[in-house]
Amino acid sequence: MPNGGEHFRDPHVSTDLRQLTAHDQIVRDTVMNTPGVRQVLAATVLQVQGYLAGPTAAPLTVVTQCAGGRHRAATTAMALRAVVAGDVEQAAAYGLADAAKEFADRDLAVDLVHRDLDKDVIDR
């Protein structure tokens, strides 16, 4: 496992990325190439599959969060949404096309709501 200095490194610490958001490709690329992110997404997908196989048909809510909600949380939520919605093309942009293929025929309605993506940058 990567050391604490690199695992889930916050793009906010980079002055080049601080004012950008998950709407920007460089932020998405930076987040998706951060050690640990793909493993957590894979585990989350497995958890979603487990709940979908469960005894209830109730809606499932998955929440991602980080310190500011503009980089890591937003990017991972967008990637997860693409996978669970079975949107292979969109998931491919995150390097997750194979994971999305498992959901492609499930016809799941997936809503994505960003709480902080469009808020001002926080000072920290």
Written description of the protein model:
The relative contact order is 0.17. The chain is mainly alpha-helical and 124 residues long. It has helices spanning 25-32, 37-52, 72-84, 88-92, 97-101. The model has no long low-confidence stretch (mean pLDDT 84). The longest helix has 16 residues, at 37-52.
Summarize the structure.
The protein is mainly alpha-helical and 124 residues long.
User: So what's the oligomer here?
Assistant: single chain
Q: What string gives the helices and strands in order?
A: HHHHH
Q: In percent terms, what proportion of residues is strand?
A: under 5%
Distance N terminus to C terminus?
A: 27 Å
Task: Please report the total strand number as a whole number.
Answer: 0
Largest sheet report: none
Q: What's the helix count?
A: 5
Secondary structure category: mainly alpha
pLDDT under 50 segments (min length 5)? none
| Average pLDDT number | 84
Q: What does the radius of gyration come to?
A: 15 Å
Shape: globular
User: Share of helix among residues?
Assistant: 25-40%
Question: What key phrases describe this protein's structure?
Answer:
single chain, globular, mainly alpha, 124 residues
Topology:
Elements: H1 25-32, H2 37-52, H3 72-84, H4 88-92, H5 97-101
Helix pairs in contact: 2-3
